[in-house]
């Protein structure tokens, strides 16, 4: 794992949260993207070498909508930048970590992603990210 790539924050009102983080960070978001397969719209802010990803649900049955309903708004996940996501998945499985999906998929911000189950990492949802080719 090379660095923290981003922190994902689940929000009820993406437009309001975008304005809040714009004021907080003193800069505009650099990207907004809708990921239909996950039922989410994302807004990214750069902060130093890392990013903040705001996550708003686009449908009530999406993972983000379910998360907010169960836990409320707040930090949803921590994402780590990895050089080779396939090798990292294999390594982590060997270490006994449980993955939500055994294969990486295409996520927002042109990344291949995979998630570790929070039960494997003391209640924290961990995302692995590798720049897609």
TrEMBL record:
CDD domains: MMCE
Superkingdom of origin organism: Bacteria
Keyword Transport assigned: no
Keyword Metal-binding attributed: yes
Record-stated family: Belongs to the methylmalonyl-CoA epimerase family.
Name of the protein described by the UniProt record: Methylmalonyl-CoA epimerase
Cross-referenced NCBIfam families: metmalonyl_epim
Keywords per UniProt: Isomerase, Metal-binding
Gene expressing this chain: mce
